Amino acid sequence: MGFLSKIGCSVVGAVYDRILKPFPTTVRIETTNRCNSQCVICPHQKMTRPITTMNEELFRKIIDECSEYRLKTIHLHNFGEPLLDSNLFDKITYAKKKGIKHIKIFSNGSLLNSTNIQKVLDSGLDEIKISIDGADKLEYESIRVGLKYDVVVANIKNLANQRQKSGGGLPKIVVACCTTSNRNKSMDNLKDIVNGYSFGKLHNWGDQNTCIPNTVRKPCYRVWSTFTILATGDVCLCCLDFDGKVNLGSLSANTSICDIWNSELYRSVRLMHKSADQANIAICRNCSKSFF
Known about the structure:
The chain is an alpha/beta fold. The chain is 36% helix and 13% strand. The chain is built from eleven helices and nine strands. Strand 2 (73-75), helix 3 and strand 3 form a beta-alpha-beta unit. The longest helix has 18 residues, at 2-19.
């Protein structure tokens, strides 16, 4: 398997190198890492880094640079519930004014009350992805502990209804589902209301203690495309690095996204993925997304 991993990573990595741009194609900004749920499929409770919210000055610095490089896509989420950031909508509005064409958030939907729905519509948000795992109320609430299925479903329906009344088609509403016992049943309540469903599969959050079968490795496209900024301004490897263990730099008055993206450290990470040497990176060693 080692030989196949070397060949596969070399070939695919070479393709990624050719399409690598001087600035990331997607910037993921964690405006907060606070969360109001205790989902059994999420390691949020294991997180040891400080719980905080990104300050306005840092956020605007990030957006200003993204605007300068004409970045089209930013995600205002990472490892928390974005609606817990009291300044989220001001941040979205600022980013839209700076010319960011596509702004997306990933939410659990529990805080989409009537007030927040109106703020979503007024802010110019382009897409909201809402997590609903499980086929029904019982399964959902056993997975997304602390949340109420009926409340989240009602919130999504209200968002869709208010969006229609406002006469606009935005934000696009997508339901994300990582685990369910019945896909068709999962879609019963919302399939004619939302723009679509996204069914994924559970991953292991780069868990170093999880045994991965000896299969063929692949380079992760994210290290060639996506830049992840934690609420403190630290830059981590990817959205699966929930505790920020692989620090690639920190944004400050004298350090930019471009500086870190093109740094020797970032290049060394890409080289390890291209060389099938992901085992040298703790968070990638047994990551389920690091194998074909």
